[in-house]
Amino acid sequence: MLHHRFYLGLALLALSCVILPYQAQSQFTLQDSMQLHYPLDGNALDESGNGFDGTIWKAVPTTDRYGNDSSAYDFDGAGDWIDLDETFDYQERTVTGWAYTRDTTDDQFILNQDAASLTYGAFAYRYDEGDIKANAGGEGAVVISPFDTLPRWTHVAMIRNATTSFYYLDGELFYTGTPSGNGSFSFPNVNFVIGVDRTEMNRFFNGKVDDVRILRSSQILLDTI
Ligand SMILES: [Ca+2]
Ligand SMILES: [Ca+2]
Asked: Which of 120, 122, 127, 176 could form a disulfide with 183 if both were Cys (CB 3.0 to 4.6 A apart)?
């Protein structure tokens, strides 16, 4: 825990130059900028107030990272996912969630929105040939070494603004990049999907997902780490 707090402090320091000018100009609050929030406590209702409720395809309620019953969703790696008819194509964007991973051997998508028509690029958190890969906004995938031990819960945050992308795992900033507008032409899907790739037919996640949030800002969510 101390380890995470240390890195969170570093993360705050690193982000302060981004957040502070933004807040001063817009006076946005975190809640104002929340576009989607799925606590996934027995349903896929959107608690952001925007009504972006998800549709659950075969995923089942399970325990969360604290052991609370029916407080996350389990995806069995074979035909389970959650989707909704909504896109989150923002220049300033934060996508976060918790994922419980059993195995990264098979290619799997946890959080995904990917189409070439998106102005601000595809985003994804996924496993590919044993690596962890993330994409905050269209740039080439950021590759992270495989987890040392599995299974495990991991918090991921993918953040972009007009000039910079930020990638966090468990509160640790591991990469900053330059976001672009790239996305896929084949089987594009402008809508956000959880637990499967953009086709909604392939690369199903084998694990659990909890506390998915999308914000229209480049703030990191302190209460989720
Ligand atoms: Ca939950
Ligand atoms: Ca299944």
From this structure: 122
**Torsion region of 79: left, alpha or beta (phi above 0 gives left; psi -120 to 50 gives alpha):** left
Task: Give SS3 for 18.
Answer: helix
| Cα of 68 from ligand 2 centre, angstroms | 22
What 3-state class would DSSP assign to 192? Answer: strand
Amino acid at site 139: E
b/e for 197-206, b at 16 or more Cβ within 10 A?
bbebeebbbb
The answer to whether 112 and 214 are in contact (CB under 8 A) is: no
Ion ligand 1 — residues with CB < 5 Å: 39-41, 64, 71, 210
Radius of gyration of the chain (CA): 16
Integer Cα distance of 53 and 12 in angstroms: 31
Task: Determine the distance separating the centroid of ligand 2 and the alpha carbon of 53, expressed in angstroms.
Answer: 21
Distance 44 CA to ligand 1 centre (A): 10
The answer, yes or no, to whether residue 225 has pLDDT greater than 70, is no
Q: Which domains does the chain have, with CATH numbers?
A: 2-224 (2.60.120.200)
Q: Which of 84, 94, 103, 129 is nearest to 208 (CA)?
A: 103
